[in-house]
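Example record for the data management plan.
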Amino acid sequence: MSFESDLRVLEENRPCFVADYGRSGAILNFKNERANDAAQASIREYQRIKLRTVMAEHESIWRKVIAGVFTAGIIAVLGWFLPGLLTVVAKFLLTIWRRCIHLVGVPAWLLTLLLLYVGTSLIRAYLRHRSRIRQKSQPSDDSPDEPDWRDYTCNVFHEIVWRWSYASRGRLFHLLPFCFKCDTQIHPKIGSIGPLGEKTDYTCDHCGNQVLLDGSHEQVLGWISRQIQRKLRSPSKEWKTAIKTHGWRNK
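Corresponding structural encoding:
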């Protein structure tokens, strides 16, 4: 900020004192005109706010009056039409009730067919309910001996132990390789890149067991994932055989 702007601010904000003198030179009245202007501005602002508040209160009262008149009109209309409407509904229900209790002549053969149909329907519903109860009770009895497909989380491919987990809808994730000899997790490395393509080196840091596989690590993971999904879908349920063979590796 420049010196001229600072001086202008001081000129605007400095007080302005006015004094009235008598004949003898004595000061009769001493006041600050700028302070009086500020007080007058505050009073005008207060009056403006007060006026807005009063107008808002009057507007709210008018809204309540209009809503009350509208509600009274609706109640009057309902009071005019409601008795007739209730009479029509009561007559309709009474007619239906009379139709239901009215005696009708039915041939014996038709009544016999209806009874047979109802009886067979009840027997079939009972048998279905009983079969559902048996199906629900069988998995609970066989669960200690029969493995579930979600227990299939380990298998051996290309002399490497692979472990994984299942996400929602059976999707595989955390597919990791481990050493076949000492069961140490393996960090794959690029083995070589030659005319025949890339090879991935799976060497154990603990025992030095080495396995070279064709393709990059992502390609190997894709192949292993497809083999796992194939075992899960196989009619012979190969995943059960894998659990019995390599299940001890998950312990």
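Summary line stored alongside the record: Residues 230 and 238 are 9 Å apart (CA to CA).
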